Amino acid sequence: MNMIVPESTRGVSARPPVRWRLCWENDLELADHIELSDFFRKTYGPTGEFNAKPFEGHRSWAGARPEIRAIGYDDRGIAIHIGALRRFIKIGQTDLLVAELGLYGVRPDLEGLGITHSIRVMYPVLRDLGVPFGFGTVRAALQKHITRLLGRQGLATVLPGLRVRSARPDIYLTVPPTRVEDVVGLVLPIARPMSEWPAGDTIERNGPEL
Question: What subcellular locations does the record give (predicted)?
């Protein structure tokens, strides 16, 4: 899959439309990784001193590497990015296949475009992947914001009060190899209804966060 999707922000603002490219990770060229690395450093850098560090050295991922990416371009280059990775997470005693969504970024001058556009572009992709659910997490402080953008529009079910244990992407002698975070979960029912999402507020990611 390496295609341009005719999805845009036309009608949302006076800005030029965003052209979406869906591509598998193996389809990215070196020039793509360099451009994405620069995009993430500029996007994540203002949010914290160390948030841009994972993207040094032309690296275009922070923890787990995505399987497929949706990249939105405008006349200035990369505008929006979201990645997806199929994996099994564990909720209680249930192993569940999901497409984890993450590595989300929007260029600072385009904050008004929002995550809703990327989620809408990803829906048909997740259906084609045949996963029962899409899944993502955000910081607990963003619960009201993400509920307004996704929950109230019916794009995702917001699950507050989750604890997620993840493997660190790198090994350090001074810290444990895993970390536990209190987060807000986002669930997108794809091939199965939300009623089949397993009960439980603790999730084992069994790998690094996307």
Answer: Cytoplasm
For residues 173 and 136, the answer to whether their CB atoms sit within 8 Å is no
Average pLDDT over residues 202-206: 96
Report which residue type is found at 11.
Answer: G
| Euclidean distance between CA atoms 84 and 69, whole angstroms | 6
Residue 198 in tokens: 């397993």
First to last CA, the chain: 20
- By the 10 Å C-beta count (0-12 exposed, 13-18 middle, 19+ buried), 112 is classed as exposed
Give 125-128 contacts, CB < 8 A, sequence gap 24+: 125/1, 125/22, 125/68, 125/70, 125/84, 126/84, 126/99, 126/188, 126/190, 127/190, 127/191
- Determine the average pLDDT of the residues in 140-145: 79
pLDDT at 145 (0 to 100): 76
Summarize pLDDT for 169-196 with one digit per residue, the tens. Answer: 999 999 999 999 999 999 999 999 999 9
Q: How far apart are CA 36 and CA 71, in angstroms?
A: 9
Domains and CATH numbers, the chain: 19-205 (3.40.630.30)
pLDDT of residue 2: 38
- What's the distance, CA 65 to chain centroid? 11
The three-class DSSP label of residue 190 is: coil
